[in-house]
Design a protein that fits this description.
Shape: elongated
Oligomer: single chain
Structural class: mainly alpha
Radius of gyration: 14 Å
Distance between the termini: 11 Å
Order of helices and strands: HH
Number of helices: 2
Largest sheet: none
Helix content: over 70%
Amino acid sequence: MKHLERVLLLVIALAVGSGLGYKLLPGFEPGKMILFAICCIILGEIFYQIDKKRSQK
């Protein structure tokens, strides 16, 4: 069951990341690129913490 939860978390993370990329990166705008990078870092940490908590159970 843990494996399935981790795969589901990966799918959710990829969907969120690709959605952000679709909205923020259609053209070359430095401000949006920086915002995208910051969002990726923050969301990466959030998904890491979720995975860490799920793995400890």
